Amino acid sequence: MFCYGFISHRHQVFPYQIIKFFQTNSIPPLHAEYDKIKNEYKNWDKLNDNIKQISIKKYYPGLNIYSDRHYFNHRNDEKLKGLYLVQIPRHYQDDIYLNVFNDIFVYRVLCEYNKNEEYINWEKENYKLLIIGGGCIHTEVIKKKFKKGIIKISPGGPNSSNPIFVYNSKSSEQIFQLYDKL
Questions:
Q1: Which residues contact 155 (CB under 8 A, 6 or more apart)?
Q2: Cβ contacts of residue 127 below 8 Å, gap of 6+?
Q3: What are the DSSP calls for the chain, one per residue?
Q4: Is the distance from CB of 122 to CB of 66 less than 8 angstroms?
Q5: 90-117: buried (b, 16+ CB within 10 Å) or exposed (e) per residue?
Q6: CB half-sphere exposure, 135, CA atoms < 13 A
Q7: 155, 88 in Cβ contact below 8 A?
Q8: Quick check: 142 pLDDT over 70?
Q9: Domain locations along the chain
Q10: What is the pLDDT of residues 72-120, one digit of tens each?
Q11: What is the pTM of this model?
Q12: What pLDDT does 53 receive?
């Protein structure tokens, strides 16, 4: 069986063409667009050297969006000026708790392959970002205002965690910190 599989793949004989046909025709049309975007932005997976587990960083163009990947934003960086990034791993699954000292806005960047029902009451922004990942491209930006106190933020998913940005409209200082619920 192994030898037949090897030979049929190498020489593209039956059933290789049938399998290839179903594979290319069963992929959702968005994957074709994702491939086009990845080809246009060749450096979407370029290595950066600022990788850690979970941290808070003031955003700057080229900053890794995830703590364990070298993906960054390619579009509308000027809209992120003054925001803080809660940098988490790409496939993080635990809730994130923030201790907030004043009212803040939390921005999320969504991928349409994730389950985004929890963001129904969030306000949609009038611009898009472009964070290119292997299976998800995050583009849609939404925001919600949170009051002072401990807030719980889900990572999003299931395909990828959704990036988290925080904005303090009253000051450029960081007025929140990670909160360990234990």
A1: 88, 92, 93, 94, 95, 96, 161, 162
A2: 76, 79, 141
A3: -HHHHHHHHHHT-TTHHHHHHHHHHHS-HHHHHHHHHHHHSTTTT---S---SSEEEE--TT--SSTTS---B-S-GGGGTT-EEEE--TT--S-EEEEESS-EEEEEEE-TTS--GGGTTSEEEEEEEEEE-SS-EEEEEEEEEE-SEEEEE----SSSPPPEEEE-TT-SS--EEE----
A4: no
A5: bebeeebebebeeebebbbbbbebbebe
A6: 11
A7: yes
A8: yes
A9: 2-39, 45-178
A10: 999 999 999 999 999 999 999 899 999 998 899 999 999 999 999 999 9
A11: 0.73
A12: 79
* Residues 58-69 as b or e (16 or more Cβ within 10 Å = b): ebeeebbbbbeb
